[in-house]
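hey so i finally got around to running the thing on that chain from the lab meeting. sorry it took forever, my laptop kept dying and i had to restart like 3 times. anyway pasting the input first so we r on the same page abt which one it is
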Amino acid sequence: MDALSSFVSANLGAVALLLAAACVVLGVAVVWLVRHATALDRRLDGLTRGTDGRDLGAVLDTHVEKIYAVAGEVNALTTRAAVMEATQRKALQRTGLVRYNPFEDTGGNQSFAVALLDARGDGVVISSLHARSATRIYAKAIAAGRSEAALSDEESEALRLAMAPDPATARPA
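ok and heres what got predicted. didnt touch it at all, straight out
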């Protein structure tokens, strides 16, 4: 310990100068850290305040309320979509049309048979027979893709076209 004491006594000026330099460096570091911390505080304050000046907690509360509102809207839309899907199954979705000329004395394929069906194959086949003197229209009910009444060849073809699962397979053979 005497050696340290004699060293400090001999170099007291240099030790004091070294300590003073260390204090200056530490002082500069403290000033820099304070400025840096203040700048970070300002940035954090800016990030955590909403556009209306509220704090982060109030901003998060507003966002949570919006999330609950959106979740409610999504649930309502899901319910509406389910109702629409159920209703859509009853809408006309499948159609088949066959135009033909049933009589030799008329031209232009003015007669037709059209099948109008929903997703389950329920609907109607409507036929129109066009002649020079009159046009007759017939309708036959279809349930699950079948008719209780006898169908003409053209009506059967219109029903087949309407019931075809793929448009590529619906083309006449």
